[in-house]
Design a protein that fits this description.
Length: 361
């Protein structure tokens, strides 16, 4: 299989490589990705990637010193204590500005590793090696890094572009099916906000589309990364256009917070997208069939599309802390048509409650 290379220019120039065999035969690919002059590398990984990280360390050792930092799994990695542990490892091993961090894992790990690389000595080289569908199509690209706080999702972070992103599709072989499907929430997001071809491919045959060995799967990864690359290259720091990538996230992040970060990100934003579609129907005359298409496609991926009525007040409180808010004004990404977005300012939250009732279980 040929490796697809997608260029990104936001926050620096780098390439996202999508292919196979990069981890089983890493020496050349990683030497190229790390670039010249790197003497020390810290691989940050979750327990599930321990064996892969060990093997990678052994293969990269020699030319450079390679250390591992195993951190807690999933959202438990996105905590200030875990970032502090990584800073301690870097400090005790005398990492300098010519050294590098590799983020090897799902989106939680690439967000954490990005944050650690952005903050250590105010910025060291970062190579992202995403190992989930979600991290390949979204989290590893575009330079949003961050951790959660008790008050909300990703409330602390920075924009810090990687030096390279390596998506080795072979690593998905052991990714549980529910994680593959959760990652598809972000792929569906790309479909509704800008690339309807994505929706057609999933609808044509959901089993083939979600099979990591199929051509359709690779095409979906490429289409999603391609969209993200275009958007973040134009608006790295989210001053406008980049907000479209937050479709479904205003409510989705509030659900993750309500569930104390135990839910999969993709599951929460699946519900968030149906909510945003309902809001779009009410305010932008988005046709019923587009709203129903959200429900049909997300359900075909076994993703949730409803949430509990009792949670509303908590969700509203949390949504006010969303990064798109300006003062007391809540702002939502909504659709004017399939593939077309706009921003909805919401001075009066009663309309949000009406839309929420449409998604209550
Ligand atoms: N920075 C961004 O632009 C951006 C974009 C989207 C999402 N995110 C963030 O990404 C996170 C979600 O990422 P995620 O869905 O990848 O979750 P995750 O990182 O929690 O990984 C999901 C699970 O898969 C396991 N895993 C990872 N790779 C595996 C593999 N190859 N084989 C077997 N198991 C594997 C992990 O150990 C974990 O249990 C959220 O924190 C979200 O906020 C960030
Ligand atoms: O890259 C972006 O921009 C996104 O919004 C992509 C989202 O899928 C991602 O979950 C992101 O981390 C959300 O960012 P936040 O600024 O709302 O925390
Ligand atoms: Zn997301």
């Amino acid at each position: 299989m040929t490796t697809t290379k997608i260029s990104v220019t936001g926050g620096g120039e780098y390439t996202v490589s999508i292919g196979r065999g990069m981890l089983s035969n890493p020496e050349r690919t990683f030497a190229e990705a790390l670039g010249a002059g790197v003497n020390k590398v810290l691989i940050i990984h979750p327990p599930t990637m321990g064996a892969v990280a060990n093997k990678l360390r052994d293969q990269l050792m020699g030319e450079r010193e390679v250390l591992l930092a195993e951190v807690p799994d999933a959202e438990n990695a996105k905590r200030i204590e875990v970032a502090a542990f990584c800073w301690q490892v870097l400090g005790q091993a005398d990492f300098t500005r010519s050294d590098a961090v590799i983020g090897l894992g799902g989106g939680a790990i690439t967000d954490l590793a990005g944050f650690v690389a952005a903050t250590w000595l105010r910025g060291v080289r970062l190579v992202q090696v995403p190992t989930t569908v979600l991290a390949m199509v979204d989290a590893s690209v575009g330079g949003k890094t961050g951790i959660n706080t008790a008050e909300g999702k990703n409330l602390v972070g920075s924009f810090y572009a990687p030096h390279a992103v390596l998506c080795d599709l072979d690593v998905l072989e052991n990714l549980p099916r529910n994680e593959i499907l959760a990652g598809f929430a972000e792929i569906v997001k790309c479909g509704f906000i800008a690339v309807p071809e994505i929706l057609d491919i999933i609808e044509a045959d959901v089993d083939v589309a979600t099979d990591p060995t199929s051509d359709q799967f690779k095409r979906l990864i490429e289409l999603s990364v391609g969209l993200k690359a275009r958007v973040v290259s134009e608006d790295f720091k989210e001053n406008g256009q980049r907000e479209i990538l937050n479709y479904g996230h205003t409510l989705g992040h509030a659900i993750e917070h309500a569930e104390r970060y135990t839910w999969r990100h993709g599951a929460a934003i699946s519900i968030g997208m149906v909510f945003a579609a309902e809001l779009s129907r009410m305010t932008q005359n988005l046709p019923d069939e587009v709203v129903e298409r959200h429900r049909r496609i997300l359900s075909s991926l076994t993703l949730p599309i409803t949430y509990t009525a009792e949670a509303w007040e908590h969700l509203l409180t949390t949504m006010k802390r969303d990064k798109k808010s300006r003062g007391s004004m809540l702002r939502f990404v909504v659709l004017t048509a399939e593939g077309k977005t706009t921003i909805l300012n919401v001075p009066d939250t009663s309309i949000l409650f009406t839309a929420y009732q449409e998604i209550c279980a």
